[in-house]
Amino acid sequence: MVHGGYAGMPLDDLHFFQYRSQWPEEVCDSGQDVDPDGDTDCADRDCEGRTCATDLICSAGACVTP
After folding, report:
1. For position 23, what pLDDT does the model report?
2. Is residue 14 part of a domain?
3. Is the CB of residue 47 less than 8 Å from the CB of residue 26?
4. What is the per-residue pLDDT for 24?
5. Domain limits at 63?
6. CA 61 – CA 66 distance, rounded (Å)
7. Beta strand 2-6 pairing with 56-59
8. Tens digits of residue pLDDT in 23-62
9. What is the pLDDT of residue 28?
10. Assigned domain for 13 exists
11. Are 50 and 34 in contact (CB under 8 A)?
């Protein structure tokens, strides 16, 4: 978020920015390394706590019941 500024006079504007990764969002049950970091599925630290299959979540590198 950026507020204010100066362009010959004080500004009172507000801008919001959203970061967008160059990599696609991690798919945690595809069996593929979607974000070329060398890790797949729940072994990928990006998947920790995310859904990996019906009623399961990634925890410590494995799909487990929450």
Report:
1. 64
2. no
3. yes
4. 63
5. 23-66
6. 14
7. unpaired
8. 666 678 888 887 888 888 888 888 888 888 778 888 888 8
9. 82
10. no
11. no
3-state secondary structure of 14: strand
Beta bridge partners of 57: 51, 64
Helix, strand, coil share (%) of the chain residues, nearest 5: 10, 30, 60
Four-CA torsion 61, 59, 35, 29, nearest 10 degrees: 90
- Residue positions counted in the chain: 66
Instruction: For the full predicted model, state whether its pTM sits above 0.85.
Output: no
The structure tokens 């494995």 sit at 62
User: Is 58 within a domain?
Assistant: yes
Q: Is residue 66 part of a domain?
A: yes
Please report the pLDDT score of residue 42 as a whole number. 86
Domains held by the chain: number: 1
Check residue 21 and give its pLDDT: 66
Which positions ≥6 away from 13 have C-beta within 8 Å? Answer: 3, 4, 5
